[in-house]
């Protein structure tokens, strides 16, 4: 049983499309992180949120604590957005659970 | 800014050999972590440290050891390498538990 479930596992989109990646979790959390893993392997933190919504450029992250659900949206997708997007939840203290990631490919 | 630097990037080990993955950060972060990432699996925490001289086990610590003699460095030691330790290893750091996590570029380790 995974504490963090992401959907879809794989996603292919045409350039310019609006993309949504979902994350559901089954434990009480203090924060949720969205990470981006580039094809070369490096991992970058995109968002950390504990309530509401955050926006950075074309990326928007939302979280519904009551429903234990978060979404990552990408507007006007571009081939450089192609990466694996990972949802991670932090419990109290230093315990994290990571999703297995959503592999996104954006086709020109 | 160098951020989190880990070495080596690639390594092949024979069963039973030992090695150390080096990790250093220049952001004066208190918290440092070692994760492993296996194909199709989420990142798993091996060990973490909340400050110099303090380390604690994560979810999958068996076969590994760590030390934290300085704020900057958090090396991961593999003793008696086994094929099950073939994985990609990520070092990470954060100022505190509620802060953004910064990751190293990863170390690809193969045990044959």
Lay out the secondary structure:
The complex is a heterodimer of chains A (108) and B (112).
Chain A (H helix, E strand, L loop, with lengths): L3 E4 L2 E5 L4 E7 L5 E7 L5 E7 L2 E5 L2 E6 L4 E6 L8 E8 L5 E3 L3 E6 L1
Parallel strand pairs in A: 2-11
Antiparallel strand pairs in A: 1-3, 3-8, 4-5, 4-9, 6-7, 7-8, 9-10, 9-11
Chain B lengths: L3 E4 L2 E4 L5 E7 L5 E7 L6 E8 L2 E4 L6 E3 L9 E3 L8 E8 L7 E2 L3 E5 L1
Parallel strand pairs in B: 2-11
Antiparallel strand pairs in B: 1-3, 3-8, 4-5, 4-9, 5-6, 7-8, 9-10, 9-11
Describe the protein in words:
The complex is a heterodimer of chains A (108) and B (112). Chain A is globular, with a radius of gyration of 13 Å. The mean pLDDT of chain A is 93. Chain A contains no helices and eleven strands. With 108 residues, chain A is mainly β. In chain A, the strands form two sheets. In chain A, strands 2, 4, 5, 9, 10 and 11 form a six-stranded mixed sheet that branches. In chain A, strands 1-3-8-7-6 form a five-stranded antiparallel sheet, with no helix packed on it. By secondary structure, chain B is mostly beta strands. In chain B, the strands form two sheets. In chain B, strands 2, 4, 5, 6, 9, 10 and 11 form a seven-stranded mixed sheet that branches. Chain B is globular and about 35 Å long. The chains are: A mainly beta (108), B mainly beta (112). Chain A binds chain B through residues 2, 4, 30-31, 33, 35, 40-45, 48, 86, 88, 90, 93-101, and chain B through 31, 33, 40-45, 48, 50, 56, 88, 90, 92, 97-103, 105-106, 108.
């Amino acid at each position: 049983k995974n504490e963090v479930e992401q959907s879809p596992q794989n996603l292919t989109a045409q350039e310019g499309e609006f993309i949504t990646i979902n994350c559901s979790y089954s434990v009480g959390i203090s924060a949720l992180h969205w990470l981006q893993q580039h094809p070369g392997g490096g991992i970058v933190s995109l968002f950390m949120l504990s309530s509401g919504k955050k926006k950075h450029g074309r990326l928007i992250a939302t979280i519904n604590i009551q429903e234990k659900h978060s979404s990552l949206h990408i507007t006007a997708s571009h081939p450089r957005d192609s990466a694996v997007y990972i949802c991670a939840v932090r419990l109290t203290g230093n315990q994290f659970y990571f999703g297995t990631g959503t592999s996104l490919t954006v086709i020109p | 800014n160098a951020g989190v630097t880990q070495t080596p990037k690639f390594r092949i080990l024979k069963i039973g050999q030992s090695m150390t993955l080096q990790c250093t950060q220049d952001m004066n972060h208190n918290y440092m972590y070692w994760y492993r990432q296996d194909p199709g699996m989420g990142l798993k925490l091996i060990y973490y440290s909340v400050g110099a001289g303090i380390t604690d086990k994560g979810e999958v610590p068996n076969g590994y050891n760590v030390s934290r003699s300085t704020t900057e460095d958090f090396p991961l030691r593999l003793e008696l390498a086994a094929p099950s330790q073939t994985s990609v290893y990520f070092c990470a750091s954060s100022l505190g538990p509620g802060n953004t996590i910064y990751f190293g570029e990863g170390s690809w380790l193969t045990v044959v």
